[in-house]
Write a structure and sequence with these properties.
167 residues, 6 helices, elongated
């Protein structure tokens, strides 16, 4: 009887250990960001209209000519000079209007010879990645990101009118 009880306990401990190791492996592969944990990052309703002002972040390590050319295209001006070969533009997954604009900007960049991919992130993840300097280009409503979170970037502020000029 005592051996049977000991065996059951060992099997239970082994099962719990296997589950704990599985959970730890999943956590290490896909860790939640501290920002998500602290903010309770939940999906909010998507906005269908552009906000009044957006921040277009470009890394400070990017050449000044490339920054100027991207900023000009982002504001609806035509340019062919000084653009990088490829860019990855990250935009808020909660802001439908910004996603539409990002796709228009990507097409404008591609017409000018720059390969551009657009990806979406939650606001919390976008802010966290921006703060860490891990994004190539990002677009987010100006009121959704602070100055401290954009220290690694040159930020071009875009008005709704400038953004609507992009075709």
């Amino acid at each position: 009887m005592k051996e049977d009880s000991t065996r059951k306990r060992r099997v239970a401990i082994a099962a719990v250990l296997v589950l704990a190791l599985f959970a730890l492996g999943r956590f290490l592969q896909h860790p939640p960001s501290a920002m998500d944990v602290l903010s309770g990052a939940t999906k909010k309703t998507q906005t269908a209209e552009l906000a009044d002002t957006y921040a277009l972040g470009m890394p400070q390590g990017m050449e000044r000519g490339e920054q100027d050319a991207i900023a000009a295209l982002a504001a609806g001006q035509n340019t062919q000079d000084g653009l990088p070969d490829s860019v990855l533009l990250t935009v808020s997954e909660q802001d439908e209007a910004a996603q539409t604009y990002a796709r228009k900007l990507a097409h404008a960049l591609e017409r000018s010879g720059t390969d551009c991919r657009v990806q979406t992130q939650s606001d919390a993840m976008l802010r966290a990645f921006a703060k860490e300097g891990k994004l190539q280009l990002f677009l987010i409503a100006r009121d959704q990101i602070g100055r401290k979170q954009t220290q690694a970037y040159t930020v071009q502020e875009l008005t709704r009118e400038e953004m609507e000029a992009v075709r």
